[in-house]
Design brief:
The chain has one domain (9-340): TIM Barrel (Alpha-Beta Barrel). Helix content is 43%, strand content 14%. It has helices at 31-43, 68-83, 99-110, 116-133, 136-156, 167-173, 188-205, 234-244, 259-262, 278-285, 301-309, 320-324, 328-333, 351-355, 363-370; strands spanning 9-11, 14-16, 20-22, 48-55, 87-93, 160-164, 211-218, 229-230, 248-253, 292-295, 315-318. The strands form two sheets. An eight-stranded parallel barrel has the order 3-4-5-6-7-9-10-11, surrounded by seven helices. The radius of gyration is 19 Å and the shape is globular. The protein binds flavin mononucleotide and iron/sulfur cluster. The site of flavin mononucleotide has 23 residues, from strand 4, helix 12 and helix 14.
Length: 371
């Protein structure tokens, strides 16, 4: 049973011991708890953990690869995860938030004239002018930093890097946000240039490093997502990214909409079903020979096995399911799938906990605390 899930795979040059990856998930918990959570997830048997939002520039949010303390923390995370027989991938992230715009809205937010949701929406809208007006010097500085950060990530012990194709790469990719008239705007080829240069910077510095790309897809009908790559433009972006050095694609819905679209609850009108974004994988599959990883609402071992066995995807990534039960892979391998605590996609304590600044948790943790 679950033969494919439990079989190794070559994922862009890296051998994964099985097909389960922990999707990039910022946790918003104190450092020691964060390390313990990573260790726990690794112990549960997944093949690789993708660490969400590792900043590419020295001064991003979160621990910095460029500081002694941040580097040591990432190294510690790699050691803990490796000791459990799990690999570690750094999601290289460049925010597209315009912090000057944020300062403008801060007084309104602090005196509660602007809600957190309104602030987020205004910041999202500010990504358009930010990428449209960005100087070439700044573009070069950021894309070069993807290479620099990747070198540091490898030194810290990461086995792979993932270029975050949403946020800054996604806003450059999107004709909703990017209104430039130079070689970084206009045609799909030009809008792909920022992401291609970010990937190339990694490849130049690390000729052998596997590079995963978080390919954020904008759905045409019904329309979802504002940044990222429009479905109709995948045929331009995917080959260009592959040529630049991408060795695998992690495929999902594009952001800059509601977070509950990219992290959809079971009640979502379009993405409530198991494997809600796999139709994007089918499109990417037809355009590349690189391995493809699906993500989004994957919880049921029978369903996951069927998708893998049919060759629809090479791997699957799970965020909420491994928050709800980190032992999902171990249980599936041991013939104990019946004891899995299934994520019900309620978003109450994971996304809900993140939004309320109390850290990412699960309703099952609360039940455990009560009993
Ligand atoms: C609490 C939380 C934090 C997340 N943080 C990140 C992140 O830092 N970077 C990222 O690319 N995706 C992030 N995601 C999105 C997940 O990687 C994943 O794409 C999404 O949750 C859908 O997968 P799932 O149904 O298995 O949860 C986060 C998701 C959750 C629930
Ligand atoms: S709170 Fe737990 S069960 Fe609910 S969606 Fe989040 S991880 Fe899944």
């Amino acid at each position: 049973m679950y033969q494919t899930i439990n079989s190794p795979v070559n994922y862009g040059g890296l051998t994964l011991k099985n097909r389960i990856i922990f999707a990039p998930t910022s946790m918003g918990v104190p450092t020691q708890e964060w390390l313990a959570r990573l260790q726990r997830i690794a112990r549960g048997g997944c093949a690789m953990i993708i660490l969400g939002d590792v900043p590419v520039l020295p001064h991003g949010f979160g621990p910095s690869l460029y500081s002694k303390k941040g580097f040591a923390l990432y190294r510690q995370a790699a050691e803990l995860v490796h000791a459990e027989g799990c690999l570690l991938c750094a999601q290289l992230h460049q925010s597209d938030s315009d912090f000057k715009a944020m300062l403008k809205y801060l007084p309104g937010f602090l005196c509660k004239k602007i809600t957190a949701d309104e602030l987020r929406a205004r910041l999202n809208d500010a990504a358009g002018p930010l990428v449209t007006r960005m100087s070439r010097r700044k573009i070069e500085k950021i894309t070069r930093a993807f290479g620099e950060a990747a070198v540091l990530a490898q030194k810290a012990g990461f086995d792979m890097v993932q270029v975050h194709g949403d946020r800054m790469c996604g806003s450059f990719s999107s004709d909703v946000f990017n209104h430039r008239t130079d070689e970084y705007g206009g045609s799909a080829e030009n809008r792909a240039r920022f992401a291609v240069e970010a990937v190339s910077a990694v490849r130049r510095r690390l000729p052998d490093m596997p590079i995963d790309y978080k390919l954020a897809v904008r759905q045409a009908s019904p329309a979802y997502g504002r940044a990222g790559v429009a479905q109709a433009e995948l045929a331009v972006f995917v080959p260009l990214l592959e040529k630049a050095g991408v060795t695998s694609f992690h495929v999902t819905l594009a952001d800059h909409c509601n977070l509950s679209d990219t992290i959809p609850p079971a009640s979502h009108p379009a993405f409530g079903a198991e494997g809600c974004f796999l139709h994007f994988c089918d499109e990417v599959r037809a355009l590349t020979r690189c391995p493809v990883c699906g993500v989004g609402g994957l919880t049921d071992p029978d369903f996951v096995e069927a998708q893998l066995a049919a060759g629809r995807v090479d791997c699957v990534a799970m965020s909420r399911q491994l928050i709800a039960d980190p032992d999902w892979p171990r249980k599936v391998a041991a013939g104990q799938a019946g004891t899995i605590r299934h994520c019900v996609r309620c978003n109450r304590e994971c996304l809900g906990g993140m939004m309320a600044h109390r850290g990412v948790h699960c309703i099952y943790d609360q039940n455990e605390r009560k009993s």
